[in-house]
Design a protein that fits this description.
Elements lengths: L7 E4 L3 H10 L3 E9 L4 E9 L2 E6 L9 H12 L12 H13 L8 H14 L1 H22 L1
Parallel strand pairs: 1-4
Antiparallel strand pairs: 2-3, 3-4
Helix pairs in contact: 3-4, 3-5
Length: 149
């Protein structure tokens, strides 16, 4: 499945229930089928809602493919320096930190270097980082809480 087909991916407990909910609010079901993965066939749906295409699946797909590109950041861009650009955070650092924050939404087990990196970002940028990060963390927690309710 080509990731260019959707804007947002959501891990959901019950694909059919989420499709029913989104379509009851005016969303349009674009696709509902199984995706063949190396591990198993996975149910999924693609729903258009408010101009956003949402990929719904009960399992995280291709999660194992994240480790290698993440390690590239560590090996080639961060290496022996605290941030991508050197001693101070850059826009590239903010982008990477935001990506790492959202990886928590899929319960991705971040490597220790990434946890250390995010702590350096928060320490260096203070409230400019911690306030939006708190919003992301709160959103992730509410999604997880809603999924278990």
């Amino acid at each position: 499945m080509d990731a260019k087909l959707w804007n947002v991916g959501m891990k959901v407990k019950d694909v059919d229930a989420e499709v029913a909910f989104l379509t009851s609010l005016g969303g349009k079901l674009l696709l509902r089928e199984k995706l063949a993965t190396p591990i198993a066939d996975v149910d999924y749906a693609l729903v258009s809602f408010g101009g956003t295409r949402i990929f719904l699946t009960p399992v995280t797909i291709f999660e194992e493919a994240l480790a290698e590109p993440l390690e590239v950041y560590n090996t080639f861009f961060i290496a022996d320096q605290p941030f991508i650009g050197g001693d101070h955070p850059s826009i590239a650092d903010i982008r990477l930190a935001a990506t790492l924050e959202f990886l928590r939404a899929i319960d991705y087990d971040l490597p220790q270097w990434a946890e250390d990196y995010m702590a350096r970002m928060e320490d260096n940028l203070g409230e400019a980082y911690s306030e939006p990060a708190a919003d992301v963390r709160g959103y992730v927690a509410s999604v997880k809480e809603g999924a278990t309710a």
